[in-house]
Design a protein that fits this description.
The longest helix is centred in the N-terminal third of the chain and has 17 residues. The chain has an 8-stranded mixed beta sheet, with helices on both faces. With 162 residues, the chain is of the alpha+beta class.
Length: 162
């Protein structure tokens, strides 16, 4: 597998991956995290233009997509709990993979890549997203508490720091 920046030509494939991820979440007990329209195409286009969207490639096929950037995430300023440190960090959002054997392990590969870019990484997920909760735990992320999105929804906040 390899990681590269997403380009606008990838947009249809990326949106198909997000559609599959929404369906998968609903079928595995997590119908509320992304509901029926998240992330909207306009957000993904903005991510691509900003150079913060990445795809994971296996062979010739895009098998996963995610947002990664070194930045301060505004929704991480307030936490019910405590971050591991207050140092600069990379942020991961909107990570999703497609179906099929070529995509198995793509989420872990993408998160490990993020950690290689910066040893201090934060991410959040819905309390009902059992596959992501398990993946983050398996990769050594620490559950630091609860954050609130701009719309008031709660998310479980995780932090990885070497």
């Amino acid at each position: 597998m390899e990681i590269r920046k997403t380009i606008l030509k990838d947009l249809d494939t990326v949106m198909e991956i997000y559609a599959y991820a929404r369906d998968y979440m609903k079928k595995t007990g997590n119908p509320n995290q992304w509901r029926d329209n998240h992330p909207p195409q306009s957000v993904i286009e903005a991510d691509i233009r900003a150079g913060c969207s990445y795809v994971c490639i296996n062979g010739e096929k895009i098998v996963a997509v995610f947002y990664y950037n070194l930045e301060e995430e505004p929704t991480y300023r307030e936490i019910m709990g405590k971050w591991l440190n207050n140092e600069a960090y990379g942020v991961v959002h909107r990570i999703a993979r497609t179906r099929g054997p070529g995509a198995i392990g793509a989420g872990a590969y993408a998160l490990k890549w993020c950690i290689e870019q910066h040893s201090n990484v934060r991410i959040d997920t819905h309390k009902d997203n059992a596959p992501m909760l398990k993946l983050l735990e398996n990769l050594g992320f620490t559950n630091c508490g609860i954050i609130w999105l701009a719309n008031g929804d709660q998310r479980v906040a995780f932090h990885y720091s070497q």
